[in-house]
Amino acid sequence: MNTFCIAILSIALSVMAQFSLKTGMSGDGVQAMMAQPKSFMTLMHILMDKYVLGGFLLYGLGAVAWLGVLSQWEVSKAYPLAGLGFVLTLPIACLLGEQVSLSRVMGVALICAGVFLVGRS
After folding, report:
1. Are 77 and 32 in contact (CB under 8 A)?
2. Where is the signal peptide, in residue numbers (predicted)?
3. Which ranges of the chain would DSSP assign to H, the alpha helix?
4. How many CB atoms lie within 10 A of CB 99?
5. What's residue 54's pLDDT?
6. What domain count does the chain have?
């Protein structure tokens, strides 16, 4: 698999991790735990939520994939690609009913332009 594909995989895993963490933290069980007095057991219950745990697992897999990217590319070339996470997040957020303003869409377009320019260098 070429380095660009590994980078996209890593970014996609990070995006999936964000939505998994959001799902977990918004769930009734975690929300109920957040209303409890904070303790080590509260933290453990939150961390053991399947979506929160899954989000951390996805982040871990994304980090492992990112190591493959960093072994092949300079950080100054690789890291701007992380901005593509905004591009992947936007349509998913829309599908999930989140509010996406025109200024947010324009900001993502500017990020895309920056990633394109860095990629050509």
Report:
1. no
2. 1-17
3. 3-26, 28-35, 40-47, 50-70, 75-78, 84-95, 102-120
4. 7
5. 97
6. 1
